[in-house]
Design a protein that fits this description.
The chain has about 525 residues and is mainly alpha-helical. It has a single domain (about 55-245, about 300-525), classed as Growth Hormone, Chain: A (Up-down Bundle), CATH 1.20.1250. The chain has helices at about 60-80, 90-95, 100-130, 130-150, 155-175, 175-180, 185-215, 220-240, 285, 300-305, 315-340, 350-355, 360-385, 400-420, 425-450, 455-500, 505-520, 525; strands at about 20, 40, 40-45, 390. It has a two-stranded antiparallel ribbon with strand order 1-4. A two-stranded antiparallel ribbon has the order 2-3. A hairpin with a 2-residue loop joins strand 2 and strand 3. The longest helix is centred in the C-terminal third of the chain and has 47 residues, at about 455-500. It is globular. The two termini are about 30 Å apart.
Length: about 525
């Protein structure tokens, strides 16, 4: 039993371990479940109320429309950071600034401030709802791009990018919790994959398109086009993205107090609360309200600082390091490849530098949905061979794909560029890392959600902030390291560092169950 995951001596089933068919598992097969609501043979988790105002009961057309608009908007917002990359050399020459300074303020600062502000937006959204943050974020991003269109100095551009980073926080971090508001667990994988595709292709396609815009219209032209896009997004955000936080009581829920043996997958239900079926459907005009007052009595400041102590949880440490590492190096490749490909023997123009992202974008389009499917399918397959017992560590099997692809990609790219090999070979190697990223992302994020479901939102804030901090540091010193060590030494060094972090997968897989038990039994963890 366990398929390599060591059993714990203190708890038979620490948080995250479950039988297939129960609330915490990745698959929800029919079982002896009384009056629990189902979708065919699949038990609905969470159990919806009978209220027409429960987002879980909204039509699939409405829910999918909300998801599509948010995913697209999130993709466009994420692209704002690296879209300026093809023009970094031009900005450096135009304003007589060093390459490191340009990459710091044009790329690194937006990421850093986005990561820092997520502490406050995540806490605020829990109290006042997500809709006000989505609408205000879109409005501020429109203003920031108008500002960038007319910026005529480096300090103005730098200040605008910081403002843009602050405005980006809600659209980069609240989408995952919106998916949880709208969709049942068995429906979330596809929607999160859609979001992942939008993020990945947004970043890469943004650089491809911006390369041509920079050549034709200059640096400020990219912000002008972005402003036009947000002019289209703003009305969609206002009229379609209604509040998805449900504050009513749900008529059925899994009774978490009743112990369930490992040999049984029967789940009892607890009926409580007023009858939600008697509620009248909220009018569309009422749904368009931006502010609804406090939806929660939680403390704003307590919620804002909660992500910090979560870094002490082993699963959060592992997921943070893996997620941050893979995305940090993906960004660093984008920044450094501009200088590499703009110089001999390649001598590419900004538009041509942007085109180098095409194979990476194709890889993202193919492998993001595949990794999303595998993140559910493989653990279910392993659980069925583990006596029906699901362990969160089964998610980490995806790292078997991510580790060799990323390691080979970095080493190959460093050697290819140092020897001046053809552009084709360079693109083959950097695309390999692009293939690895969605697998590492799915493994790390799904693992921490399984281990700490109740703290998943705050854990993601922690992960995103560390990613932003590392990306800021990398963009600040990257060009200097490239000039000092050369591409071969630098990228082999990155490969070894990333490999070392990735190999934490082995102890996390083997001892993960015992670590989850330790956290569950620790008094200090219960106080967080």
């Amino acid at each position: 039993m366990g398929i390599g995951v060591l059993e714990d001596r203190h708890m038979t089933r620490p948080p995250g371990t479950s039988k297939l068919g129960e609330e915490e598992g990745p698959s929800f097969d029919a079982a002896s479940t009384g009056d629990l609501k189902k979708d065919g043979d699949i038990i609905l988790v969470p159990q919806p109320s009978d209220s027409p105002n429960d987002p879980l009961n909204w039509s699939m057309v409405q829910k999918n429309s909300i998801m599509l608009i948010l995913a697209f908007s999130s993709g466009v917002t994420t692209s704002l950071g690296p879209m300026i990359s093809p023009g970094l050399v031009i900005i450096s020459k135009q304003y007589n600034a060093s390459p490191d300074m340009v990459s710091t303020f044009m790329v690194g600062s937006i990421l850093l401030f986005t990561g820092a502000v997520t502490f406050f937006t995540a806490s605020g959204a829990n109290i006042w709802g997500k809709r006000p943050f989505f609408v205000i974020s879109t409005l501020l991003l429109l203003i920031s791009n108008i500002w960038g269109t007319f910026a005529d100095s480096f300090p103005s551009l730098a200040a605008m990018r910081i403002f843009q980073g602050i405005a980006s926080a809600p659209l980069e971090t609240l989408v995952t919790s919106t998916v949880s508001d709208l969709f049942f667990v068995h429906q979330r994988g596809l929607r999160l994959s859609l979001w992942g595709v939008m993020l990945g292709t947004g970043v890469l396609l943004g650089q491809i398109i911006s390369g041509y815009i920079i050549e034709a219209m200059g640096i400020t032209g990219t912000f002008a086009i972005s402003a036009l896009i947000f002019c289209l997004i703003l009305p969609l955000m206002y009229f379609i993205i209604v509040e998805t936080t449900y504050t009513g009581s749900r008529s059925t829920k899994f009774d978490e107090k009743r112990p369930v043996s490992r040999a049984s997958s029967i789940v009892s239900i607890d009926l409580k609360g007023d009858d939600p079926a008697s509620e009248s459907k909220e009018s569309y005009k009422s749904q368009l309200r931006i502010f609804r007052g406090r939806l929660s009595d939680d403390s704003f400041w307590k919620g804002a600082v909660k992500p910090f102590p979560l870094i002490c949880f082993p699963a959060v440490i592992f997921s943070t390091l893996v997620y941050a590492s893979f995305f940090c190096w993906l960004l660093m490749i984008g920044v450094l490849s501009v200088n590499i490909f703009s110089a001999p023997p390649y001598n590419l123009t900004p538009a041509q530098v942007g085109l180098t992202n095409i194979p990476l974008a194709i890889a993202t389009l193919i492998f993001s949905p595949l990794s999303g499917w595998m993140a559910d399918a493989i653990p279910v397959w392993l659980a069925k061979r583990n006596g029906g017992v699901f362990e969160p560590e089964f998610r980490l099997v995806l790292m078997l794909i991510a580790i060799p692809f990323s390691t080979a990609g970095f080493i190959g790219f460093g050697i290819a560029t140092s020897k001046g090999l053809s552009l084709t070979w360079c693109l083959v190697w950097i695309t390999m890392h692009s293939v690895a990223v969605p697998f590492a992302s799915q493994a790390s994020i799904s693992y921490v959600i399984d281990c700490h479901t109740k703290d998943a939102n705050q854990a993601f804030v922690t992960i995103n902030f560390v990613k932003a901090l590392l990306s800021f540091i990398a963009s600040t010193i990257g060009n200097g390291l490239l000039a000092k060590f050369g591409p071969k030494t630098l990228f082999i060094g990155i490969a070894m560092l990333n490999l070392g972090i990735s190999l934490l997968t082995i102890p996390s897989y083997i001892y993960g169950k015992r670590l989850r038990s330790w956290v569950a039994r620790s008094e200090w963890a219960k106080k967080i």
